[in-house]
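User: I'm new to structure prediction. If I give you an amino acid sequence, what do you actually give back? Let's try with this one:
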Amino acid sequence: MIFSRDRGSGRHTKQPGRSSAGADRSADRGTRRARSADPVPDVDESADEEIVEATGPYDISDAPDGVERLSLGSLHIPIVDGVSVRVQANEEGAIQQVALMHADNALMLSVLAAPRNESVWDEVRADIREELSAGGASVSDVRDSEYGAALRARVTTPEGAVELRFVGVDGPRWLLRATFQGPVAVDPHASPVLMDSFHGLVVDRGRDAMPVLEVLPLRLPREIAEQAKAQAAAEEASQPATNGVVPGSGPGGESDARASRPRNVR
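Assistant: Good question. You get back a string of structure tokens that encode the predicted 3D arrangement of the chain. For your 266 residues, that looks like this:
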């Protein structure tokens, strides 16, 4: 299923009426993203606030107002011109996979439960590295200019080599795992509108206790889920018999409900 809207784009700018508490939370999250102990030089506070306000992903508690977004439950995706949202969902509307697409670039997203005051990105990154290396991929540690420690990988597919970049963003009790694919995995400037979408993401962690590294649930809006269900039923009715074999089924057809082994409930 693909969602695409012809709307204006651009990184979010400072919104009127934003509380100072929200700005403080954004600044705290930006510090965690940098993952650096280097001292920060004195800068003009108003200029720094503008930078913080303009950059996400955001927690739901400090997201800018006045931005149209597609709500998928724990993840809200901004509507950006030229970027389509592709989801794989079951008949009940629960989403197994979500990806943002622009030209030859893709951005796959998942949100994991995390401790309140501890980053789990190092552990998740190690698991990704181990899995890719076991599959024969070339993997290297890099430092993302915005979000700190990251991974670069090149995997071989039947269509040829594919470049990947894995980035983690820490928030209050959540970790956003982002996988960039295509030219944007090598150079973020290859798709400015896809980066706009990434910077405008909003995470709604919710209040429920969940095991650490449990994937937060994503769900289609009710009206879209009903339309998709009706469309799927119509397509199934028009399909010829397949002797009990469902086209497209098999390994990889369903994603795992967990990104890694569960740990303590937080």
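You can read the tokens as a compact description of the fold. Here is one thing that stands out. The chain has a mean pLDDT of 78.
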